[in-house]
Task: inverse folding
């Protein structure tokens, strides 16, 4: 079967060659160690391309953002985009990577229709930065109870051009080329094979995405292809050297990374246990079926004929301004340092310390775009208790945001009215269950304030101690059986008693007062 995948992004029509069951039992899995290394392509957030002035705007009509250079017309020359170098340097600083004071461009040759020049300009021999390390938190609330702190090492960061896009028309049996993306600046970030599971790799990419977004060097939108992840995966047994790896491409979401890797690990184990060898091949991830499928093989036989790019001089970056260093023409590291925003790791540490929150809450606050600033806006009223606010924010507000498939930044509920809701809850004007109902209505009708909803619905909590005590007494007198059971040690029946009392109050009795009163009355009788 002839498959025409594009060389860089690996896009291809959906072929199904062979499928594997994803079930492998745990005991068989345990003797295998899995190893994962990532190659990440991050599109540089820049108005124009790496070597030409054409726009990089996403979603423009096909072939409307193509300069003569992007189309590789003879006689055109590359002009390095300063912004792209600065973005690379900034990213290297954020990732603790060592910036090479001199880096160079190379040509990597291959023949494919979406690469009109027949080569990609990349940085093979002397990349922009080498080494580096990134601390991340392996935490997915639906998988881990507790967050686990991890670190992964980087091999290098290099600048390179993106290719065009091949659009495969299966009916007409033809491939069409859109060169809008051709020549867009990429940062290729390569990690050491430092991950042992799909969850770890996914958490790492999430952290990287947050960093790139916070320093503004990549928008991190995986669904639009601005952040693309290739996962190299192998398995071996304890004491053995690393196994043959496969490379999985076309993963376009954070969850997809975890899924693709977990599937591939299971597939490799099942291959090995059936006596077959792992073939060093490139595979594609099918997000719908959750499987990886072979894509193109014998990649290693390709000879890219690397050679220095003769039309670009080496890139020099300087630590600071000095004799002979003119600010207009070079990139100066110290000047860029000011642009380094508070990084996610520092944010988490600050949030934990400043507001007395546990790490898992800090991770949720920092990982959800816009949530931390929303939280801090609510806390501008210093009377508010951070722990109380964060509890309803993470449990209820975020739940509303997710179920409505919107984002915190475009939440119809403002920090001001959410803060007012928190105040009503903490002053016991409403109960938690009422607060949940009010919040849902606030999302429906963002113009109404929580106080108005509560008074309109007559949902104010009853904290009248006399009234509560009277009702408690009545309920106790009418439920002698329950009281006896409670006295025998069946503490659970308290819930039944509370239920009866709340029924009398249509659920509006102050739960704290109800419990206190009930217990006091029963104890005094004992
Ligand atoms: P290539 O030059 O073929 O791209 P590299 O040595 O640069 O190969 O590695 C590419 C990626 O593959 C890196 O992210 C690296 O961590 C990862 N990798 C290398 N060997 C293995 C292995 N045995 N198992 C899993 N990942 C690996
Ligand atoms: Mg590689």
Result:
């Amino acid at each position: 079967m002839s498959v025409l995948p594009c060389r860089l992004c690996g896009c291809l029509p959906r072929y199904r060659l062979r499928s594997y069951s994803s079930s492998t039992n745990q005991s068989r899995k345990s003797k295998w160690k899995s190893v994962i290394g990532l190659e990440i392509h991050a599109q540089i957030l820049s108005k124009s391309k790496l070597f030409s002035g054409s726009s990089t705007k996403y979603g423009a009509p096909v072939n409307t953002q193509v300069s003569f250079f992007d189309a590789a017309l003879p006689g055109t020359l590359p002009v390095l985009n300063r912004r792209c170098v600065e973005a690379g340097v900034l990213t290297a600083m954020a990732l603790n990577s060592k910036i090479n004071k001199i880096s160079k461009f190379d040509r990597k040759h291959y023949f494919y229709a979406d690469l009109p020049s027949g080569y990609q300009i990349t940085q093979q021999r002397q990349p922009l930065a080498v080494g580096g390390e990134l601390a991340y938190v392996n935490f997915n609330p639906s998988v881990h109870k507790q967050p686990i702190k991890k670190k992964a090492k980087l091999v290098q960061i290099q600048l390179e051009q993106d290719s065009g896009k091949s659009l495969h028309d299966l009916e007409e049996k033809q491939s069409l080329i859109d060169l809008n993306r051709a020549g867009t600046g990429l940062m290729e970030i390569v990690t050491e094979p430092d991950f042992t599971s799909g969850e770890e790799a996914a958490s790492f990419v999430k952290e990287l995405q947050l960093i790139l977004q916070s320093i503004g060097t990549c928008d991190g939108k995986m669904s639009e292809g601005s952040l693309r992840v290739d996962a190299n995966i192998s398995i071996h047994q304890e004491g053995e050297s690393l196994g043959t790896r496969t490379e999985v491409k076309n993963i376009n979401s954070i969850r997809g990374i975890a899924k693709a890797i977990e599937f591939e690990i299971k597939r490799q184990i099942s291959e090995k246990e059936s006596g077959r060898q792992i073939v060093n091949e490139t595979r594609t991830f099918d997000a719908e079926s959750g499987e990886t499928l072979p894509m193109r093989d014998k990649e290693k036989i390709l000879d890219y004929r690397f050679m220095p790019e003769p039309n670009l001089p080496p890139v020099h970056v300087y630590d600071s301004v000095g004799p002979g260093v003119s600010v207009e023409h070079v990139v100066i590291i110290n000047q860029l340092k000011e642009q380094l925003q508070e990084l996610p790791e520092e944010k988490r540490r600050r949030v934990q310390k400043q507001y007395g929150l546990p790490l898992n809450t800090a991770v949720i606050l920092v990982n959800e775009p816009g949530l931390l600033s929303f939280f801090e806006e609510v806390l501008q009223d210093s009377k508010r208790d951070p722990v109380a606010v964060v509890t309803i924010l993470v449990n209820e507000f975020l739940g509303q945001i997710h179920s409505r498939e919107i984002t915190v930044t475009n939440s119809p509920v403002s920090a001001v009215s959410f803060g007012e809701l928190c105040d009503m809850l903490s002053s016991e004007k409403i109960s938690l269950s009422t607060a949940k109902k009010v919040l849902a209505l606030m999302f429906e009708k963002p113009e109404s304030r929580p106080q108005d909803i509560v008074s309109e619905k007559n949902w104010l909590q009853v904290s009248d101690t006399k009234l509560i005590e009277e009702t408690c007494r009545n309920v106790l007198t009418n439920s002698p059986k329950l009281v006896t059971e409670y006295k025998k040690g069946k503490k659970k029946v308290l819930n039944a008693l509370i239920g009866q009392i709340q029924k009398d109050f249509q659920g509006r009795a102050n739960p704290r007062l109800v419990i206190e009163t009930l217990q006091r009355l029963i104890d005094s009788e004992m």
Residues 344-457 form one domain. The chain is about 35% helix and 20% strand. The chain has three domains: 34-308, 344-457, 465-525.
